[in-house]
Write a structure and sequence with these properties.
The strands form two sheets. The chain has a four-stranded mixed sheet. The protein is of the alpha+beta class.
């Protein structure tokens, strides 16, 4: 009763007691193409946060330690793996990836009326880290030398070649430079910020 009286009488308490300002334990997160809640939603949220953090670390290393690059992917992955924070975070992330893979496999078996799959053991070694890192970084990478702010049709005529689909996926339909990295000769990465340095 006293709690309700305080909420009613104090404007500041009344504001923070509104449901919009409270964390709901049934919050939903996009898993695949569905909105889900519970442990699988927390796994997806963790993986998203881990990947965002890892992209920031990778970008910082490339910009600060390699002066923007170029760097071979294997050297880059090995340098990140030497970071104690990455080594500490990876086993937790690997477990969350395994939960998401198991959930995806379970969804497929339920759709096809098959028996449930066995649990997926998370791979916590450097090889599995390297594989996920490659996928994560490639989502933020476009080929070097692709001009921006030019419509794709016009750009294809100018360059006399087809523009890869991943460029429009990263830059959007208006060809706005949103990528973090550029790829040179299919093996070397550069920091995308180099194009804006004097």
């Amino acid at each position: 009763m006293a709690r309700l009286a305080v909420i009613r009488e104090n404007e500041h308490v009344r504001r923070i007691e509104q449901p919009v300002y409270k964390r709901r334990w049934d919050e939903q997160w996009k898993v695949g193409n569905q909105w889900r809640c519970g442990p699988i939603a927390y796994a997806a949220e963790f993986v998203d946060a881990f990947e965002s953090w890892l992209k920031e670390k990778a970008e910082w290393w490339l910009e600060k330690k390699k002066n923007g690059g170029p760097v071979e992917f294997d050297e880059w992955a090995a340098a990140l793996w030497k970071d104690a924070r990455v080594c500490a975070a990876w086993p937790v992330a690997a477990e969350e990836y395994a939960k998401l893979k198991y959930d995806s496999a379970l969804q497929k078996t339920e759709e096809n009326d098959e028996p449930a799959p066995g649990p997926i053991t998370p791979a916590m070694d450097f090889v599995s880290f390297r594989r996920e890192l490659k996928r994560i970084l490639d989502e933020e990478t476009v080929a070097e030398g692709i001009p921006f702010a030019i419509p794709y049709e016009e750009l294809e005529k100018k360059l006399k070649r087809k523009i890869p689909g991943n460029i429009s996926k990263v830059r959007g339909k208006l060809n706005v430079p949103r990528e973090r990295f550029h790829l040179r000769d299919k093996t070397q990465y550069l920091w995308a910020g180099l194009q804006f340095k004097p």
